[in-house]
Design brief:
By secondary structure, the chain is of the alpha/beta class. Helices cover 28% and strands 18% of the residues. Helix 1 packs parallel to helix 4 and helix 10 packs across helix 11. The chain is globular, with a radius of gyration of 21 Å.
Length: 438
């Protein structure tokens, strides 16, 4: 490969917050809100044009994973108060109504919450590199329409999902599955209109088997959709005649490789046409459906698992472990491992057959990189195995992880210590004060 030498240059330091959060998905939302509300001067960076990540730009249908936490309830209630929601139409079942995401309304209300908390938000900004002093992260270098700039902070929270900041800082990580580094497939969510809700069906999981006039719906999908697509997942929305579709599927993708991501975008869009044709032909109520909107980018489920002081295992989840250094609680989901070779659930996954002794907690040590100081992890990039990650990667759990890490970051700044030396008991005291209990 040819190389060039980039000339050195002097960069302006455009901001010096106390807590810097990179990535404004659910994990970054929780971190930024919590750090700011705990009194830290907080800045949030996001590469797209909106905050919310998979909950907004990614067009995910609903919140799941840790629904009964105060911050989760606050986020969804604020969205439900939006004056832009339909005035009368409400096709949702009671069990779905609270957690269904109206993407544009969610973007607006999250922005309002950030402004109210005093978070400095900067969109259209990518973290291009890091600023290090030995093993201590001092800040980041960004690229944007304003050029190449530097931002310094005593504590940075990596909520990029892919662990981009941690990787650039030299933190150790495992990509994907331990034995072969295969990652779960990527998906582009999209919405369709023209659905007759009075006759429509809404299979919500890989194990939602249902007979329709032309056959069993999941079997029809595997038989008639282009591989590796093939499962049928359809979700109600608050919009007349609209349905959220989770059916595109691309395997063998490394989400940290821009060229592979680009290819995945094109494959997903080609699959969307085939999916709509399939729905029109086979699924009742979808005979007149059409494409309304697609997510801004493919949703990446799995990439880097950054090595932390401790690593979350599947046993921790099944045993409903309450760690002594808990910072996120009431987490409950299944082992949602999408097959790395085709549609549906991986042989090591468990949805309907998932069994656990109750909800579990996230330990602070899993959010602290083993060797890098000045940095905390938030979201699906925390330290966990491939199987455990399939449980804690969902948005509600990531929001809670962010809240715990955000309070820890603000506490570290206030105590004048490195994040790994923060008084976790004090962090837990503050979490209890806002209603978070194990």
């Amino acid at each position: 490969m040819k190389t060039i030498v980039e000339p050195s240059r002097t960069l302006p330091v455009v901001a010096e917050p106390e807590v810097l959060v990179a990535g404004a998905g659910p994990a970054g939302i929780g971190a930024a809100l919590a750090a700011a509300r705990a009194g830290a001067k907080t800045m949030l960076l996001e590469k797209t044009n909106a905050i919310g990540g998979m909950a907004t730009s990614g067009m995910m249908s609903h919140w799941s994973g840790a629904r009964e936490t105060p911050l989760m309830i606050e986020v969804v209630e604020r969205m439900r108060q939006s004056k832009s929601l339909p005035l009368e139409f409400n096709p949702l079942r009671e069990s779905d109504a609270k957690w269904c995401i109206s993407h544009e309304c969610q973007k607006t209300t999250l922005g309002q919450m950030m402004r109210e908390a005093g978070v400095i938000v900067q969109l259209h900004t990518t973290v291009a590199d890091v600023i290090m002093d030995g093993n201590r992260l001092q800040g980041v270098i960004t690229e944007s329409k304003s050029g190449r700039e530097a931002i310094l902070a005593p504590v940075t929270i990596d909520a990029t999902g892919d662990g981009d900041v941690a990787a650039r800082a030299g933190a150790e990580y495992i990509l994907g599955r331990e034995e072969d580094h295969a990652c779960q497939p990527v998906t582009m969510m999209f919405r369709i209109g023209g659905v007759d809700y009075s006759r429509a069906v809404f299979p919500g999981s890989f194990e939602s088997y249902m007979d329709i006039p032309k056959g069993e719906i999941q079997s029809l999908g595997k038989r008639h959709l282009p591989h590796p697509a093939g499962h049928v997942l359809l979700y109600r929305t608050r919009l007349p005649g609209e349905v959220c579709v989770n059916m595109t599927n691309v395997t063998n993708i490394d989400g940290t490789d821009v060229r592979q991501l680009t290819e995945a975008e094109f494959i997903c869009r080609e699959q969307m046409d085939a999916i709509i044709q399939f729905l029109r032909e086979f699924v009742p109520g979808y005979e007149q459906c059409y494409l309304v909107a697609a997510a801004d980018n493919v949703g990446v489920r799995e990439t880097r698992h950054v090595k932390g002081v401790t690593t979350i295992t599947p046993e921790d989840i099944v045993e409903a472990t309450v760690f002594p250094d808990w910072i996120a609680t009431k987490n409950y989901f299944n082992f949602d491992i999408h097959s790395v070779v085709g549609p549906g659930l991986d042989k090591n996954g468990a949805q309907r057959e998932f069994k656990a002794k109750g909800s579990y907690t996230i330990p602070y040590r899993a959010c602290v990189p083993e060797k890098i100081d000045g940095l905390l992890l938030s979201g699906r990039n925390i330290s966990g195995t491939h199987k455990a990650h399939s449980n804690f990667r969902v948005m509600g759990i990531c929001l809670g992880i962010g809240q715990g890490v955000g309070i820890a970051a603000a506490t570290a700044v206030r105590q004048g210590v490195l994040p790994r030396h923060v008084d976790v008991a004090e962090v837990q005291r503050q979490l209890r004060a806002v209603g978070v209990t194990p």
